[in-house]
Amino acid sequence: MIRHLLAAIALAFALVSSACGPGNRDNSCSGGSDCMGSCNPGANRECYTGQPQTKGVGPCHAGMQSCTSAGMWGDCMGEVIPLPEICGDNIDNNCNGMVDEDIDADGDGYTTCAGHDCCDSTECSNPAEVNPGAYDYPGDGVDNDCDGMVDNAPLLCDQALSSGSSNAADYAKAMEICQTTTMADPLRHWGLIDAKLTLADGTGTPSSDSFAIRPRFGSGTMPQGGVSVAVISTGGAAAKGDTNPPYKPFVSDSTGTSSPIPADFLAANGGMLPNAPGCPPPIDSMANDPVMLTFTIRVPTNAHAFTLKVNFFSAEFPEFTCTEFNDFFVVLLDSAYAGSPANPTDKNLAFYQQPSTMKNYPVGVNLAFGNTGLFTQCINGSTGCAGGVAGTISTCSSTLNLTATGFDDPASGECDTNSLLGGATGWLTTTGNVKPGEIMKLRIAIWDTSDELYDSLAVVDDFQWLADPSTPGTVIQRVGAPAPLADPRVQVSSTFE
User: Fold this and answer.
1) Cα–Cα distance for residue pair 431/350, rounded to 1 Å
2) What is the rounded distance in angstroms from the CA atom of residue 137 to the CA atom of residue 156?
3) Confidence at residue 37, expressed as pLDDT on a 0 to 100 scale
4) What's the N-to-C CA distance of the chain in angstroms?
5) Is 127 helix (H, G, I), strand (E, B) or coil?
6) pTM of the model
7) Which residue in 6, 62, 290, 418 has the most C-beta neighbors within 10 A?
């Protein structure tokens, strides 16, 4: 029985193929869905590219399509398809059967007239994702944000920024967060609402040496988006040769500042700083030499996640790896997102997940212990030679990102004869999920733990919105490769830089 059915299907397919193939284009193929565009040159047919239910409604009507000499259907000429409603002209521009209506048919919070919603029902295929509060995703052929332009070119706003700027909004620009808005914006446009530079607890003023905007860090760490990067450090936010602020050696330097660490992050971890598996806990819970960037941002109505790029450097590597001196770098997200996959309960997106326990551990130098794969810009060899848990690392693949930074200075005898002053992760991609249209808060902080010496530094860049929820956390990414957003987190050794 099944063989007879398959034979019948094969015969039907053969008949269609013989009737509609390139060698037999007759009028029976014109417009046939089985003909895959083949037609008889000179043939004409009616066509309509708007949503089917709008044809013949209001001013919308079909056009005509001609078959080209190549046997393919050409453009649909003379049709009128739905347009955004032009209020007050007494015309049903969007061809939904109503004239000059001011309604929110798609439930996105924006009406056609007062809300300036250019696609509320029939004007595009996904009305709820199109309104003045949306992000205009490049390349999708849709005027997502209803500004009258399709596929706006991404803004470039990180040019000519002062390297020593104390304006926190400039650091948002350096990370490609270009659009700004206000809390009271009547159309709820997305963008940066507020920015602050503080100590790790959100108060006070960090040392002016600990933050900078650079065209690069050293000669091997280049911008991942735009022309600048944001740099925050527990010492000097400068590579060799940099000024404003100037370069300072990354060993035995202190900015003279301290603060409590973020209280919600500490409470979510049981009142203790989380530490890398197998390594001793920090001596105390104070943040030494801290700096934190806090951005308050209204999320686009069509965004469900975001990514940013981070490169973490530390002079604690290799000799203080897996000790109590585990400098912390965190990306804390306050969001109303409650979907799946869930954001971390302690809000920190800059983490490594241990495969055996599924526990999250913050990005830090102690994750160079145990070959987690987090550190790739370094010299392979011994670690923990200054009183820590002794170990080895074999995941270092390059020192390019260390070039001319000061972290590449020779440090013979610090574990091995070929040791350098420090090491780095290479570029990481950090992802968090958000609720469309909400006002989120993003806190990016770094601090010394258990001492004020041997500095760490983070280069942050290339903030981007994503249209779909993704796996939260931090992954290692090859230079120039797209972020593996749905992959397991940094334990995936095949994505080393």
Assistant:
1) 9
2) 15
3) 59
4) 56
5) helix
6) 0.84
7) 290
